[in-house]
Amino acid sequence: MGFVLDIDPHAARRSVEMPENCPSINRMSVFNEPALGISNADKKHLRLLTSRAIEYCQKDRPFCQQARHIIAGAITYLELHEPRLALCVRSWGSCSLLSKRVNNAYEHHRRMDARRLAAGEPPAAAPPPQAPPAQTPALAPQVAHGDTAALATAQRNFFASIA
User: Fold this and answer.
1) Same domain for 101 and 162?
2) Radius of gyration of the chain (CA)
């Protein structure tokens, strides 16, 4: 259970193991884990963060069927804005919060589709997931040694391209 990020900036900090005797990630609670130090008073803050993190999740499928880049982006967002979640091995804390919210959104979507069908309307169509745009590395222009005008032009063009 959990999720392993391809590039994990918090790998050295991950020290809180998953709770034992939990049948699924959806049943794990970050609020009852003393090693994380997340109290019940932080619930509202974490719910808001989780709602923002699942903004790009597809509502017509459960958490386990979401695309990998969508889950990785949501986990990264949560751990960036709530550093205590970055202590969880295999990101189980973030996955627990995300799983509950995404699965609730999925159930709501299914209920709304059932109501639409009962009313004789077609179900809402969701667009397919889009991969994040690939960033191409900027090619460094070749400037002759001592050519300050060409170097200044190359620098202006480079900084204009990343602005």
Assistant:
1) no
2) 22
Cβ atoms within 10 Å, residue 137: 5
State pLDDT tens for residues 49-101: 999 999 989 988 999 999 999 999 999 999 999 989 988 888 888 999 999 99
Entry pTM: 0.67
Q: Which of 20, 108, 15 is nearest to 61 (CA)?
A: 108
Residue with tokens 């222009």: 141
Instruction: Please give the residue range of the domain that contains residue 149.
Output: 136-163
Residues 145 and 115 in one domain: no
Long-range contacts, 129-136 (Cβ 8 Å, 24+): 129/58, 129/66, 129/67, 129/70, 131/67, 131/69, 132/69, 132/73
Give per-residue pLDDT as tens, 101-117: 999 999 999 999 889 88
Structure tokens at 46: 């974490």
In a domain, 13, yes or no: no
